[in-house]
Specification:
Largest sheet: 7 strands, mixed
CATH architecture: 3-Layer(aba) Sandwich
Strand order of the largest sheet: 2-3-4-1-5-7-6
CATH class: Alpha Beta
Distance between the termini: 22 Å
Strand content: 15-25%
Helix content: 25-40%
Number of helices: 6
Radius of gyration: 15 Å
Number of domains: 1
Order of helices and strands: EHEEEHEEHEHHH
Number of strands: 7
CATH superfamily: Peptidyl-tRNA hydrolase
Length: 189
């Protein structure tokens, strides 16, 4: 089983680009840069899409042009257009339950209160997609979560997140080759 689509969850626009909530988008941008892939805006699919080529495999990377709570729309449209199944999708997203600097790979599961994952699950009618969880830490109380995720991390925290993203990029060749279990063991260890 190979991954054919990697989605980086984010809110569009300059006001959000440096916020914790865009960690998934940071991952997909860094991954695409690493593989010299350029994004093309596909307005009818509500996404910016790049083709990542690796060992004769082509994987699409996607940045939604919709807001976080509508991430399922471009996910569904792109997966239908290119005939990609939920189990062939990897969604990179910020995760409050992981400390800053941690990154984990998992398959399936609930949305954990994440509006982007909630919408993707609803639009795909499936939870069987893979997730790359980029830790952003937790502000301590749920009333503080909204301002926290939409806030900018300190320079120190941002560097820890970028280091985690780089570790995530290192395991992508394994993921694209279908060695998701091996990639999980390496990344989650």
């Amino acid at each position: 089983m190979t991954i054919k689509l990697i989605i980086g969850l984010q809110n569009p626009g300059p006001a959000y680009e440096n916020t914790r909530h865009n960690a998934g988008g940071w991952f997909v941008e860094a991954l695409s840069r690493h593989h010299h892939a350029s994004f093309k805006i596909e307005k009818k699919l509500h996404a910016a899409i790049a083709n990542l080529e690796f060992n004769n495999l082509v994987c699409k990377t996607l940045l939604p042009l919709t807001f976080m709570n509508q991430s399922g729309l471009p996910t569904r449209e792109v997966s239908q257009f290119y005939r990609i199944q939920p189990y062939e999708i990897l969604v990179a997203h910020d995760d409050l339950d992981l400390p800053v600097g941690r990154i984990k790979l998992k398959t399936g599961g609930g949305h954990g209160g994440h509006n982007g994952l909630r919408d993707i699950t609803a639009q795909l009618s499936s939870t069987e997609f893979h997730r790359l969880r980029v830790g952003i830490g937790h502000p301590g109380h749920r009333d503080l979560v909204l301002n926290y995720v939409l806030g900018k991390p300190s320079q120190e925290d941002k560097q820890l997140m970028l280091d985690a993203i780089n570790r995530g990029i290192e395991i992508i060749p394994m993921v694209l080759d279908g060695n998701i279990t091996k990639a999980m063991t390496q990344l989650n260890g």
